[in-house]
Amino acid sequence: MSSPEAGSSGSHVQSDPQNFRLNALFFRRLGGLLRPYWFRKGAWLSWAMLLVMTFAGSTYSIVGGVVSTLTARQADALVAKQVGQYWWFWGLLTGLVVLRYLTINLQNYVSARLNLGWRQWLSTELIDRYLRNKTYYQINIDRDLDNPDQRIQESVFPFCDAMTQVPQRVMTAGIDIMVQVVILMAISPAMFVATLVFTAVQAVLTLVVYKPLIRLQWNSTISEADFRYGLLHVRDNAETVAFYRGEEAERKHLLARLTDAVKRQLDIKYYQIRVNIFYQILEIVWDVMPMFLIAPLFFQGHISFGAIAQGAAAAMMIKQSLGLFSQFIPILSAAAPNVVRLAEIQEKFDRLDADAPRDEKSSRTPRINLVRGAEMVRLQDLSLTTPGGEQSLFRNLDLTVPNSRRLLITGQTGVGKSSLLRAIAGLWNRGNGVVEVPSSDKMLFLPQKPYMVLGDLRSQLIYPRQESDISDEALEKVLERVRLGGLAQRFGGFQSERDWARVLSLGEQQRIAFARILTNRPSYVLLDEATSAVDLATEELLYQLLLETGATVISVAHRTSVVQFHDMTLHLDANGHKIRMRTDEQESSYVRSQISEQVG
Ligand SMILES: Nc1ncnc2c1ncn2[C@@H]1O[C@H](COP(=O)(O)OP(=O)(O)OP(=O)(O)O)[C@@H](O)[C@H]1O
């Protein structure tokens, strides 16, 4: 069987064989996932719910034992034709059965509340950590963790569900067994011993037969995640696929992923059928055993007829209760992939939070020193490499962008212009040298492919801020200034929610991005081909607006039409380490002193 791959990133993430074992590492990871929730501040409510569950579960089991005893006595009353006794037991048993149903419903309700509350808490934790410190971006470029989104969305619920089942089952099974053991011992010690032996054998065999299932479940989880990602990919690129008429290619690709997912499901099903046959054989042995052991006692006159029924019922309940213990193994093996997938993402978060080297190799990887909170943008002896180390982009770049200046970065396609912006934004840090930048809240980045946030039109315009006291009238003026007057009216006002990335043209989205400069008033603006989709006249207007804000500008562009809006030019050369700079005459001496060092 081939090892699962990471579909989301396209990188091949080899699964660690340790992931398929219920070993010390697994239980350490499990502890690491459980501890933060159960020992957090305010965890008392969760513990209280667990107590209520315990109470309801105990009541359910104890009442079950009482019902079993009373049923035998009711049967004896029936045989002896004790009419009054019989109806008394009938009424009592009816009441107890109703009580049992009530307690089981209470237990189900509380466990659902606990489970969902836990899901919300854990998902929130994961989302917070995913978004903190640009972790989502780092995971994306590191490509050593497949489908992080699927882990957060799909693994949390089954994990919480399985874990809330465990205490409930331990408790129910424990009490059931205690009650029933007392009854069974009184009826037939031989039956009791047989039960113990049977259970021990069953537990060991269950452990053996379920071990391979963990790996199968793991493979299936990843295949399903990859299939889901394939479908999302078509949805996200629907228009492009339609233009290319790429349906056949997409179909082939999706069906390959679907086939893989189905195959892995089938592997599980085939295996489960084999396990079921094994269990059915055990069942048959168990079913014939009670009568074999108890009936002779009745023939010898040692026990009553009612006791036979009671003994058989007790044996059945014990079998069920002990079976519950064996069920932990299937529960754990089904939960294992989710435990490991959640633990892996947490471990990744921990490593990124601690800024720890990801492995032996990366501990030796040189990193750029990023200094935030500087007075201006300054690069010192900067050499940049792509995140995976595939390519060295440029070397020994020294550059200072004085405040209120406007730097244009030009150069052949693929030379590393956008990558330089990534280094300035602190997204890429593989290489050498120092990047000094002002604090990030003073900077705004306008990418070539504009980003439209989920939400209403107001949210688009004030992004990345979430709140602003700017009035609708002021927003309308901003829209007019970027030649989008009437947009709000066209889409039903600033509070109207749309899929903006689809309903607006690329040029309109680029103008929305410029509107953000006017609403956010950043001191530093970084643009990456941010006007590539608008006509020349609109481009001129947008740059004029930008100039009026007085912000320091660093932009990447191919079009010569934008040169006029800049007063410094950095030309990155194709061979990666020669840099030429131009600037206005009056500033040339300042800049030349910089160039002379770096071009050498
Ligand atoms: N995530 C990545 N991992 C590895 N290499 C990458 C990654 N992103 C970009 N590259 C490579 O880095 C090089 C520089 O890319 P960059 O986007 O900075 O070029 P550019 O000069 O802005 O190009 P263009 O003018 O075409 O936009 C390219 O060869 C590109 O293939």
UniProtKB/TrEMBL annotation:
Residues 377-599 form the ABC transporter domain. InterPro entries: AAA+_ATPase, ABC1_TM_dom, ABC1_TM_sf, ABC_transporter-like_ATP-bd, ABC_transporter-like_CS, ABC_transporter_sub-D, P-loop_NTPase, Sigma_54_int_dom_ATP-bd_1. GO terms for molecular function: ABC-type transporter activity; ATP binding; ATP hydrolysis activity. Residues 51-334 form the ABC transmembrane type-1 domain. Keywords: ATP-binding, Membrane, Nucleotide-binding, Transmembrane, Transmembrane helix, Transport. The chain crosses the membrane at residues 44-67, 87-104, 177-210, 277-299. It is found in: Cell membrane. It comes from the Bacteria. Pfam families: ABC_membrane_2, ABC_tran. One of its GO terms (cellular component) is plasma membrane. The keyword Transmembrane helix applies. The keyword Electron transport does not apply. It is a multi-pass membrane protein. PANTHER family: ATP-BINDING CASSETTE, SUB-FAMILY D MEMBER, LYSOSOMAL COBALAMIN TRANSPORTER ABCD4. This is Putative ATP-binding cassette transporter.
